[in-house]
Each structure stands twice: as C-alpha cells, then as structure tokens.
C-alpha cells in the first residue's frame, strides 16, 4: 500500500475516533477511495496458488455451468490463451476464488 493510502487510513481513524459526527462525510469519502484501491484477489497470489472455480465459458457466474477447481498461480491481463494460469501451465478465461466454506468442503470431501 502506498504512503498516501496509509496516511488516508490514519486520517480516517482519527476523524472517526475523535469527531464521528462532524467528519462522517469525510470518513465515507475516504472509505470509497480506499475501496477503489484495494488489491484484487489475483494481485497478491501466494506461491502455491489460490483455489478457484475455473471456466472457459462465457457465463462464468452461471451455477448451472460445470466448472473445475484449480489452483491459480498467476494472472496475465490480455493474454489470448486466458487470463488465469495454473501451476501446470493450464490457462482459463475465468476464475472465481472458492469461499472459505467451499475450501473446507473441498479438503474434507464433505457434501
């Protein structure tokens, strides 16, 4: 995180703690700026990757479309093969991170 964003966080905390009513508008605006600058899930991938639902279909959020689970290790913007790379050099157009509950189910084999 940049120094400017760190400073904004400190200003937000000070305003919220010391002047909650008077500075509410400022706090809301700072929250919006911070949210815009939050890293995307694929920007800080761990070395072992992140478990994701992957698909090459044009409707990645459709629950009726069968998707596979893969560990995504890299994101490459604008790549013709797909944007998300797996550890074994597989490429996928879409990837949606598994939720904590889905990861537990995946690891335990529970339905």
What percent of the residues sit in helical stretches (DSSP H or I)? 25-40%
Report the average pLDDT across residues. Answer: 83
Describe the strand arrangement of the main beta sheet, using strand numbers.
4-3-2-1-5
Report how far apart the termini are.
Answer: 39 Å
Major β-sheet profile: 5 strands, antiparallel
Structural class comes to alpha+beta
How many distinct beta strands?
5
What radius of gyration results from the CA coordinates? 19 Å
Q: How would you spell out the order of helices and strands?
A: HHEEEEEH
Runs in which pLDDT lies below 50 for 5 or more consecutive residues are: none
β-strand amount: 15-25%
How many domains, as an integer? 2
Distinct helical segment count: 3
């Amino acid at each position: 995180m940049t120094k400017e964003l760190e400073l904004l966080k400190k200003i937000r905390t000070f305003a919220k703690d010391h002047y909650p009513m008077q500075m509410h508008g400022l706090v809301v605006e700072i929250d919006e700026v911070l949210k815009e600058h939050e890293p995307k899930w694929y920007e800080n991938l761990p070395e072992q990757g992140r478990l994701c639902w992957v698909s090459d279909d044009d409707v990645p959020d459709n629950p009726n479309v069968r998707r596979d689970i893969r560990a995504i290790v890299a994101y490459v913007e604008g790549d013709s093969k797909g944007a998300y790379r797996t550890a074994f050099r597989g490429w996928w157009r879409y990837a949606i991170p598994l939720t904590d509950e889905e990861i537990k189910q995946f690891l335990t084999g529970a339905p």
